[in-house]
Amino acid sequence: MTAGKLRKKDTAQKAVKKPAAANVGEDEKKRQKRKEDKKDIKEQKITSSSPPTKPAAPEPKQEFTISFHPERPGLEKFMGMLEAEVMKIVWTHGSMTVKRALYFINKEHNYAYTTIMTVMSRLSDKGLLAREKQAGSYLYTPVTDEKKFVKTAAEKILSGLMDDYRSVTTNLFHKIRKASKKS
User: Fold this and answer.
1) Region 74-144: CATH code
2) In the 8-state DSSP scheme, what is residue 76?
3) Over the stretch 149-175, which tens digit does the pLDDT of each residue have?
4) I need a surface site. Which of 16, 29, 155, 172 has the fewest CB within 10 A?
5) What are the backbone angles phi and psi of residue 53, rounded to the nearest 5°?
6) Rounded alpha-carbon distances, angstroms, from residue 36 to 25, 26, 43, 82
7) Helix-strand-coil percent breakdown of the chain, rounded to 5?
8) How far is CA 9 from CA 3, 14, 16, 17, 19, in A?
9) CA-to-CA distance for 134 and 137, rounded, in angstroms?
């Protein structure tokens, strides 16, 4: 006997057959379950008064996640250095793929494609970039312009300070106001 025939024979002997009565019982249970499922679906159709509707498309994020680092310069106060650089490029040049963003960034640096892909994906998760699948890659579009972003970020930070430290924040605003009137 050859090795191939031996293996087939061994596996055939290992297979355990269930008695026919056990199979019939299991098949009956499966049929009963399918009947109940169909009945539930019919009842749902009858009880729902409105026609089935298409699921609503998720609305674009209007909120973005903001962190604040007062010691950093410019946009880096609100995000990481590379995130700020990517956002400046997208705000300047409009919607783009990771490959195009990499082209602009690597004029001054030498980042890997996957690094920029991760940064853009995280900016999308934070609500700063919208991501749309196009021809095998993602097209990233800014959700807002730079001016509106900075305004929203400053409003969130100041309202958070007012909520948690109202007296300190109010006193600070009065000092700033007095100083600006004198100059």
Assistant:
1) 1.10.10.10
2) G
3) 999 999 999 999 999 999 998 988 888
4) 16
5) -115, 160
6) 17, 15, 10, 57
7) 60, 5, 30
8) 10, 9, 13, 15, 21
9) 5
H or E segment at 165?
Answer: none
User: On the CB side of 25, how many CA atoms lie within 13 Å of its CA?
Assistant: 5
- SS3 at position 129: strand
153 and 66 Cβ atoms separated by less than 8 Å:
yes
Q: Is 130 left (phi over 0), alpha (psi -120 to 50) or beta?
A: beta
* pLDDT tens-digit readout, 115-143: 999 999 999 999 999 999 998 999 999 99
Q: Which two tokens stand for residue 46?
A: 């009858």
- Residues 86, 123 contacting (CB under 8 angstroms): yes
Return the amino acid letter for 6: L
Structural domain boundaries in the chain: 74-144, 148-182
Q: 66: alpha, beta or left, given left = phi > 0 and alpha = psi -120 to 50?
A: beta
